[in-house]
Here is the input.
Amino acid sequence: MGARLKKCSVGVVAIAIAMMAGCSQSNPPAGNGQTAAATTPAAPPELVTGKTAFGPIYKAAMAWSSDAQIIRLSQKEVPGFKNQAGKAAMWEVAVGSPSLHQFRLYTYSIATALPEIHKGTTAGALRPWSGPTRDAMPIDVSFFNTDSDAAYQVSATGAAAWLAKNPDKPLTSLELGNTAALNTPV
Here is the structure.
């Protein structure tokens, strides 16, 4: 019986080795017709506008609470990327829920920068919220019809004289919010 077990074990080991050899990948020889795209490294991710980031964040916020209210949208920095012309590597949205008496921050990032920044949409921790105040009112998303790159162009045009006098201080920060002082989101 010992010889039979030994013979069976050798057979199992031989089959396992054959299977591993069949599953291993090898690099194909050069010039076999592969496209250059397969060997070219991927381009770095591109900066996105506020509306591009807002879409997946809004979907996640509505999944969290059906009465989610957008309080603020602002661009944030990601190491290795430079926000410019109304586009950013990361956007942050403050969202409140009147029925849950909570708010949270959502982010949308084009890249990961550990430990805090993760690519895609991320929901922050829940925090207590007593509702809108005169300084932080919900934004009616139907008014969100101008994208951040277009808003940047209008701002840069309006601030052209100041920017010419202050070339070391570029226009870099964009934020969408609403307060009682103005009767429309700004």
Remarks:
- The first helix runs from residue 2 to 23.
- The CA atoms of residues 78 and 166 lie 25 Å apart.
